[in-house]
Amino acid sequence: ARGASLYCTLEPCSHTGRTGPCTERIAAAGVARVIAASADPDPRVSGRGFDFLRHKGIDVAVGAGRERALRLNRAYFTFKTQHRPFVIMKAATSLDNRIAGRAGDRTRISSDDSVRHSHALRAEVDAIAVGSGTVLADDPLLTAREVHRRRPLTRVLFDRRLRIGPGARVFSTLDAGPVIIVATTDSIERNRGRAADLARAGADLEPINNGALPDAFRRLADREIMSLILEGGVELQAAAWKAGLVDAVHLYVAPITLGDEALSWLDVDTVSVAALVDRHVTPLGPDVFMEGYVHRID
After folding, report:
1. Which of 77, 144, 177, 228 sits most deeply, having the most CB atoms within 10 A of its CB?
2. Of 54, 31, 27, 50, whose CA–CA distance to 40 is shortest?
3. Whole-structure pTM value
4. CA atoms of 57 and 51, how far apart (whole Å)
5. Rounded to 5 degrees, what are φ and ψ at 6?
6. In the Cβ-directed half-sphere of 226, how many Cα atoms lie within 13 Å?
7. What are the average pLDDT values for consecutive 10-residue runs of the chain, which has 298 residues?
Protein backbone atom coordinates (compact mmCIF):
# COMPACT_ATOMS: atom_id res chain seq x y z
CA ALA A 1 0.00 0.00 0.00
CA ARG A 2 3.04 2.32 0.06
CA GLY A 3 2.25 5.46 -1.95
CA ALA A 4 -1.39 4.48 -2.35
CA SER A 5 -4.60 6.46 -1.73
CA LEU A 6 -7.00 5.12 0.89
CA TYR A 7 -10.73 5.84 0.66
CA CYS A 8 -12.92 5.42 3.75
CA THR A 9 -16.41 6.42 4.87
CA LEU A 10 -15.28 7.56 8.33
CA GLU A 11 -12.28 9.31 9.85
CA PRO A 12 -9.62 6.72 10.79
CA CYS A 13 -9.58 6.19 14.54
CA SER A 14 -6.69 7.47 16.63
CA HIS A 15 -7.43 5.73 19.94
CA THR A 16 -7.15 2.22 21.31
CA GLY A 17 -10.50 0.48 21.75
CA ARG A 18 -11.24 -3.11 20.82
CA THR A 19 -8.41 -2.75 18.31
CA GLY A 20 -5.44 -0.45 18.00
CA PRO A 21 -5.47 2.93 16.22
CA CYS A 22 -6.10 2.78 12.47
CA THR A 23 -4.04 5.92 11.96
CA GLU A 24 -0.83 4.26 13.16
CA ARG A 25 -1.34 1.32 10.81
CA ILE A 26 -2.02 3.67 7.89
CA ALA A 27 1.13 5.67 8.56
CA ALA A 28 3.22 2.54 9.02
CA ALA A 29 1.98 1.14 5.71
CA GLY A 30 3.21 4.23 3.85
CA VAL A 31 -0.17 5.33 2.53
CA ALA A 32 0.31 8.70 0.81
CA ARG A 33 -3.24 10.05 0.79
CA VAL A 34 -6.45 9.49 2.79
CA ILE A 35 -9.83 10.52 1.36
CA ALA A 36 -12.47 10.28 4.11
CA ALA A 37 -16.16 10.97 3.58
CA SER A 38 -16.85 12.27 7.09
CA ALA A 39 -15.32 13.09 10.45
CA ASP A 40 -15.93 10.71 13.34
CA PRO A 41 -18.35 12.14 15.97
CA ASP A 42 -16.70 10.02 18.67
CA PRO A 43 -15.02 12.60 20.97
CA ARG A 44 -12.01 10.30 21.26
CA VAL A 45 -11.40 10.80 17.54
CA SER A 46 -13.25 13.83 16.11
CA GLY A 47 -10.43 15.46 14.14
CA ARG A 48 -7.56 13.84 16.02
CA GLY A 49 -7.31 11.12 13.41
CA PHE A 50 -6.92 13.63 10.61
CA ASP A 51 -4.42 15.67 12.66
CA PHE A 52 -2.28 12.58 13.29
CA LEU A 53 -2.22 11.67 9.59
CA ARG A 54 -1.30 15.20 8.52
CA HIS A 55 1.44 15.28 11.17
CA LYS A 56 2.85 12.15 9.53
CA GLY A 57 2.97 13.93 6.17
CA ILE A 58 -0.09 12.18 4.73
CA ASP A 59 -2.36 14.22 2.47
CA VAL A 60 -5.93 14.24 3.87
CA ALA A 61 -9.13 15.20 2.04
CA VAL A 62 -12.51 15.21 3.81
CA GLY A 63 -16.06 15.30 2.45
CA ALA A 64 -16.13 13.29 -0.78
CA GLY A 65 -19.26 11.11 -0.73
CA ARG A 66 -20.30 12.50 2.65
CA GLU A 67 -24.06 12.12 2.17
CA ARG A 68 -23.78 8.48 1.06
CA ALA A 69 -21.45 7.75 3.96
CA LEU A 70 -23.86 9.28 6.46
CA ARG A 71 -26.64 7.08 5.06
CA LEU A 72 -24.45 4.02 5.36
CA ASN A 73 -23.44 4.85 8.93
CA ARG A 74 -26.81 6.10 10.22
CA ALA A 75 -26.80 3.72 13.18
CA TYR A 76 -23.29 4.68 14.25
CA PHE A 77 -23.94 8.42 14.03
CA THR A 78 -27.22 8.10 15.97
CA PHE A 79 -25.48 6.05 18.64
CA LYS A 80 -22.58 8.50 19.00
CA THR A 81 -24.48 11.79 18.79
CA GLN A 82 -27.66 10.88 20.72
CA HIS A 83 -26.37 8.07 22.96
CA ARG A 84 -29.17 5.68 22.08
CA PRO A 85 -29.67 2.88 19.55
CA PHE A 86 -30.79 3.54 16.00
CA VAL A 87 -34.40 2.34 16.17
CA ILE A 88 -36.24 0.60 13.32
CA MET A 89 -39.99 0.30 13.96
CA LYS A 90 -41.30 -2.83 12.24
CA ALA A 91 -44.84 -4.08 11.65
CA ALA A 92 -46.71 -6.59 9.49
CA THR A 93 -50.19 -5.42 8.51
CA SER A 94 -53.14 -6.31 6.34
CA LEU A 95 -54.38 -4.01 3.60
CA ASP A 96 -56.77 -2.46 6.11
CA ASN A 97 -53.91 -1.69 8.53
CA ARG A 98 -54.67 -4.52 10.99
CA ILE A 99 -52.06 -6.56 12.82
CA ALA A 100 -54.17 -9.26 14.52
CA GLY A 101 -57.66 -10.75 14.45
CA ARG A 102 -58.26 -9.24 17.89
CA ALA A 103 -56.23 -8.04 20.86
CA GLY A 104 -54.26 -10.89 22.39
CA ASP A 105 -54.61 -13.16 19.32
CA ARG A 106 -51.65 -14.58 17.44
CA THR A 107 -52.47 -13.96 13.77
CA ARG A 108 -50.21 -15.01 10.91
CA ILE A 109 -50.25 -12.20 8.32
CA SER A 110 -46.95 -12.28 6.43
CA SER A 111 -45.96 -14.71 3.69
CA ASP A 112 -42.95 -17.02 3.96
CA ASP A 113 -41.00 -14.58 1.76
CA SER A 114 -41.64 -11.74 4.19
CA VAL A 115 -40.75 -13.87 7.20
CA ARG A 116 -37.41 -14.85 5.63
CA HIS A 117 -36.75 -11.20 4.78
CA SER A 118 -37.49 -10.05 8.33
CA HIS A 119 -35.16 -12.68 9.79
CA ALA A 120 -32.39 -11.51 7.47
CA LEU A 121 -32.87 -7.98 8.80
CA ARG A 122 -32.78 -9.29 12.37
CA ALA A 123 -29.34 -10.65 11.60
CA GLU A 124 -28.09 -7.12 10.85
CA VAL A 125 -29.00 -5.39 14.14
CA ASP A 126 -27.77 -5.61 17.72
CA ALA A 127 -31.14 -6.16 19.37
CA ILE A 128 -34.87 -6.87 18.98
CA ALA A 129 -37.34 -5.20 21.34
CA VAL A 130 -40.96 -6.02 22.14
CA GLY A 131 -43.47 -5.15 24.83
CA SER A 132 -44.80 -7.52 27.45
CA GLY A 133 -48.14 -7.80 25.63
CA THR A 134 -46.42 -9.28 22.58
CA VAL A 135 -44.64 -11.86 24.74
CA LEU A 136 -47.86 -12.80 26.55
CA ALA A 137 -49.88 -13.07 23.33
CA ASP A 138 -47.35 -14.65 20.96
CA ASP A 139 -44.69 -16.19 23.24
CA PRO A 140 -42.06 -15.55 20.51
CA LEU A 141 -38.52 -16.93 20.35
CA LEU A 142 -37.15 -13.59 19.03
CA THR A 143 -34.24 -15.20 17.20
CA ALA A 144 -32.79 -14.74 13.72
CA ARG A 145 -33.52 -18.05 12.02
CA GLU A 146 -32.21 -19.58 8.79
CA VAL A 147 -29.64 -16.78 8.44
CA HIS A 148 -26.01 -16.45 9.45
CA ARG A 149 -25.29 -14.18 12.38
CA ARG A 150 -21.79 -13.65 13.76
CA ARG A 151 -22.65 -12.04 17.10
CA PRO A 152 -25.19 -12.66 19.86
CA LEU A 153 -28.59 -11.05 19.33
CA THR A 154 -29.88 -9.18 22.38
CA ARG A 155 -33.60 -9.46 23.10
CA VAL A 156 -35.14 -6.53 25.02
CA LEU A 157 -38.51 -7.02 26.71
CA PHE A 158 -40.25 -3.86 27.92
CA ASP A 159 -42.26 -5.05 30.90
CA ARG A 160 -43.00 -2.19 33.31
CA ARG A 161 -45.08 -4.36 35.65
CA LEU A 162 -43.11 -7.63 35.39
CA ARG A 163 -45.99 -9.53 33.78
CA ILE A 164 -43.76 -11.90 31.79
CA GLY A 165 -43.23 -15.26 33.46
CA PRO A 166 -39.98 -17.24 33.70
CA GLY A 167 -41.50 -19.92 31.46
CA ALA A 168 -41.57 -17.68 28.36
CA ARG A 169 -40.01 -19.42 25.34
CA VAL A 170 -37.47 -16.64 24.82
CA PHE A 171 -35.57 -17.94 27.87
CA SER A 172 -34.98 -21.22 26.03
CA THR A 173 -32.87 -19.33 23.46
CA LEU A 174 -30.19 -17.80 25.70
CA ASP A 175 -27.53 -19.43 23.52
CA ALA A 176 -28.61 -16.95 20.81
CA GLY A 177 -27.97 -13.93 23.05
CA PRO A 178 -28.96 -12.21 26.29
CA VAL A 179 -32.50 -11.32 27.33
CA ILE A 180 -32.95 -7.94 29.03
CA ILE A 181 -36.17 -7.04 30.83
CA VAL A 182 -36.77 -3.30 31.23
CA ALA A 183 -39.05 -2.68 34.20
CA THR A 184 -39.73 0.12 36.63
CA THR A 185 -37.68 0.19 39.80
CA ASP A 186 -40.90 0.07 41.83
CA SER A 187 -42.14 -3.06 40.05
CA ILE A 188 -38.91 -4.91 40.76
CA GLU A 189 -39.07 -3.88 44.41
CA ARG A 190 -42.73 -4.89 44.77
CA ASN A 191 -42.29 -8.20 42.95
CA ARG A 192 -38.99 -9.45 44.30
CA GLY A 193 -40.07 -13.07 44.03
CA ARG A 194 -40.99 -12.74 40.35
CA ALA A 195 -37.80 -10.76 39.71
CA ALA A 196 -35.74 -13.54 41.32
CA ASP A 197 -37.51 -16.18 39.22
CA LEU A 198 -36.85 -14.23 36.04
CA ALA A 199 -33.19 -13.79 36.98
CA ARG A 200 -32.89 -17.56 37.54
CA ALA A 201 -34.48 -18.13 34.12
CA GLY A 202 -31.68 -16.02 32.61
CA ALA A 203 -33.18 -12.53 32.43
CA ASP A 204 -31.00 -9.50 32.95
CA LEU A 205 -33.23 -6.98 34.74
CA GLU A 206 -32.77 -3.30 33.87
CA PRO A 207 -34.58 -1.06 36.41
CA ILE A 208 -35.70 2.33 35.07
CA ASN A 209 -37.31 5.04 37.18
CA ASN A 210 -40.90 5.48 35.94
CA GLY A 211 -40.07 3.26 32.96
CA ALA A 212 -39.31 6.31 30.78
CA LEU A 213 -38.38 5.20 27.25
CA PRO A 214 -35.61 7.79 26.66
CA ASP A 215 -33.91 6.61 29.86
CA ALA A 216 -34.34 2.98 28.82
CA PHE A 217 -32.80 3.59 25.41
CA ARG A 218 -29.85 5.40 26.99
CA ARG A 219 -29.31 2.38 29.24
CA LEU A 220 -29.30 0.15 26.17
CA ALA A 221 -26.66 2.40 24.62
CA ASP A 222 -24.60 1.94 27.79
CA ARG A 223 -24.68 -1.75 26.92
CA GLU A 224 -23.21 -0.99 23.46
CA ILE A 225 -26.50 -1.69 21.65
CA MET A 226 -26.14 0.46 18.55
CA SER A 227 -29.15 -0.68 16.50
CA LEU A 228 -32.52 -2.13 17.43
CA ILE A 229 -35.68 -3.38 15.73
CA LEU A 230 -38.81 -2.42 17.66
CA GLU A 231 -41.23 -5.22 16.71
CA GLY A 232 -44.23 -4.55 18.96
CA GLY A 233 -46.65 -4.02 20.43
CA VAL A 234 -48.65 -1.06 19.30
CA GLU A 235 -48.60 0.86 22.60
CA LEU A 236 -44.82 0.56 22.88
CA GLN A 237 -44.33 1.62 19.26
CA ALA A 238 -46.70 4.57 19.66
CA ALA A 239 -44.82 5.70 22.78
CA ALA A 240 -41.46 5.42 21.02
CA TRP A 241 -42.80 7.39 18.03
CA LYS A 242 -44.25 10.10 20.26
CA ALA A 243 -40.94 10.38 22.14
CA GLY A 244 -39.03 10.89 18.87
CA LEU A 245 -37.07 7.67 19.28
CA VAL A 246 -37.91 6.05 15.93
CA ASP A 247 -35.42 6.50 13.08
CA ALA A 248 -36.75 4.16 10.39
CA VAL A 249 -39.95 2.28 9.56
CA HIS A 250 -40.17 -1.23 8.06
CA LEU A 251 -43.68 -2.24 7.03
CA TYR A 252 -44.75 -5.59 5.54
CA VAL A 253 -48.21 -5.38 3.93
CA ALA A 254 -50.10 -8.55 3.05
CA PRO A 255 -52.91 -8.66 0.41
CA ILE A 256 -55.62 -9.57 2.93
CA THR A 257 -58.19 -7.71 5.01
CA LEU A 258 -59.06 -8.56 8.61
CA GLY A 259 -62.11 -6.35 9.17
CA ASP A 260 -63.25 -3.70 11.57
CA GLU A 261 -63.12 -5.95 14.65
CA ALA A 262 -59.40 -6.67 14.16
CA LEU A 263 -56.62 -4.90 16.05
CA SER A 264 -55.28 -1.82 14.23
CA TRP A 265 -51.69 -0.72 13.87
CA LEU A 266 -50.74 2.97 14.24
CA ASP A 267 -53.06 5.17 12.19
CA VAL A 268 -51.91 7.09 9.16
CA ASP A 269 -52.14 10.38 11.06
CA THR A 270 -49.49 9.03 13.44
CA VAL A 271 -47.16 7.32 10.96
CA SER A 272 -47.45 8.26 7.31
CA VAL A 273 -45.28 6.14 5.04
CA ALA A 274 -45.58 8.87 2.41
CA ALA A 275 -43.81 11.29 4.76
CA LEU A 276 -40.77 9.06 5.21
CA VAL A 277 -37.45 9.92 3.60
CA ASP A 278 -35.65 7.70 1.04
CA ARG A 279 -38.65 5.43 0.66
CA HIS A 280 -38.29 2.06 -1.04
CA VAL A 281 -40.92 -0.52 -1.95
CA THR A 282 -39.97 -4.15 -2.57
CA PRO A 283 -42.31 -7.01 -3.57
CA LEU A 284 -41.90 -10.12 -1.39
CA GLY A 285 -43.98 -12.91 -2.90
CA PRO A 286 -47.60 -11.79 -2.46
CA ASP A 287 -46.61 -9.10 0.05
CA VAL A 288 -45.07 -5.66 -0.25
CA PHE A 289 -42.21 -4.40 1.92
CA MET A 290 -42.04 -0.64 2.46
CA GLU A 291 -39.19 1.11 4.22
CA GLY A 292 -38.10 4.66 4.85
CA TYR A 293 -36.32 6.94 7.29
CA VAL A 294 -37.91 9.40 9.68
CA HIS A 295 -35.09 11.94 9.69
CA ARG A 296 -33.29 13.58 6.82
CA ILE A 297 -29.51 13.44 6.56
CA ASP A 298 -27.87 16.54 8.05
Report:
1. 228
2. 50
3. 0.92
4. 10
5. -115, 125
6. 11
7. 96 87 95 96 90 96 93 94 96 94 81 96 96 93 92 96 96 97 95 97 94 93 97 93 95 95 85 88 97 86
